[in-house]
Amino acid sequence: MHDIRAIRDNPAAFDAALARRGDAPVSSDLLSLDEARRGKILAAETAQAEQNKASKEVGAAKGRGDEAEFERLRALVAAKKAEIAEMNEAAKALDAQLTDKLARIPNLPADDVPNGADEADNVEVNRWGTPRSFDFTPREHYDLPSVAPSMDFETAAKISGSRFVLLSGAVARIHRALAQFMLDTHVDVNGLTETNTPVLVNSDAMYGTDKLPKFGEDSYQTTEGKWLVPTSEVPLTYIAAGEVIDAASLPRRYTAHTLCFRSEAGSAGRDTAGMLRQHQFEKVEMVSVTLPEESDAEQKRMLRCAEDILERLGIPYRTVILCTGDMGFGARRTYDIEAWLPGQDAYREISSVSNTGDFQARRMNARFKPADGGKPQFVHTLNGSGLAVGRCLIAVLENGQQADGSVTLPDVLAPYLGGKTTLGADGILV
């Protein structure tokens, strides 16, 4: 959500920032609505003052026996009362229109975000590890002999439809081990607070975290009006909604492992093979709530937390800063981490770490009380994948594959797999 006062102060700068995202100027329309709204409010206030004045004079006219003046003033009071109600209703309607328009405008990019049209214009900022050289043609995860029997898309389609998967046996255990490893690392090493959140949330939570109204079609809504979370960013961030937080208690850092649900509207035909893009998946999420002056440093910290997971797993990756044309709706700056997938001979996104500034905080009225006792200010919120569990499973399987179809697993997973370090060609952990 944007501050209309900032748009009033510098409409040209607002439109210029939107232009960097490829969006048309909107300040003129917004300010016209704002002017009309403020005009109705002023008219209501003026009518209220006139009503108050007439109300005081009614008694005086009655007391001196001036019936004509008494009736005139009484009629004036009634007319002003109706006028005030009409002006307030008009102001309310205009305010709703303005709020709706503001809610559909994306966040403004930070100054250091590179300009660009799409993912081709993203800028690499870090690279770790060297993709392994294979003496055979590496396969994609779903084609590995050790994996295929335990990664069942046909049965999942029978149960739920396309873009679902049924994991079983050792592959399901490796998937679970990855989530546990990520959680333990974020809690024990990175100091995040583990949180078990609902995966059904109300519309206020979706709106407050910028998922509504613009992206309702990308999520699933129940017949009771609740929403299945697209990510636990929603409940974790909304913890701060309506709060005035003591500055001394910031930053607040959370992590959660949840199921996530996305309709994938607009992605028809993309990544239909395997489990790269699913309607239901699991993710270990990170969310931070910070002081404004600390959010940029916090984003770098969160990025390192996510990168470190891949380094501990031995998965080569690269990190890019997204250009203005590829950034998500609520972000002012986003870094994507892309893991190397030998089966695709490509780096693919496995984490996005975004700083939303006060964009979400304004929508959900999340503020902090400054240490000096000044007026409450909006917090900054950040979110990041730490990591997408299914995509991490793909990376582990493809990078560890052997010519015989077995998979050598990362050593850090051994404590979660009963000491086992290999997925045999027969699909058994050894």
Task: Characterise this structure.
The chain is of the alpha+beta class and 430 residues long. The chain has 11 helices and 18 strands. The two termini are 53 Å apart. The model has no long low-confidence stretch (mean pLDDT 96).
What key phrases describe this protein's structure?
alpha+beta, three-stranded antiparallel beta sheet, eight-stranded mixed beta sheet, 430 residues
How is the secondary structure organized here?
Layout lengths: L3 H6 L1 H10 L6 H37 L3 H37 L19 E6 L22 E2 H7 L6 E2 L1 H20 L4 E2 L5 E2 L1 H6 L11 E2 L5 E2 L4 H6 L5 E3 L5 E10 L18 E11 L4 H19 L3 E5 L11 E9 L4 E10 L3 H6 L2 E3 L7 E2 L1 E9 H12 L6 E2 L13 E2 L7
Parallel strand pairs: 4-9, 8-14
Antiparallel strand pairs: 1-11, 2-3, 5-7, 6-7, 9-10, 10-16, 11-12, 12-13, 13-16, 14-15, 17-18
Helix pairs in contact: 3-4, 6-11
How is the biggest beta sheet arranged?
A: 8 strands, mixed
Lateral strand order in the biggest sheet:
1-11-12-13-16-10-9-4
Shape estimate: elongated
> Taking all residues together, what is the mean pLDDT?
96
Low-confidence stretches: none
Helix-strand string: HHHHEEHEHEEHEEHEEEHEEEHEEEHEE
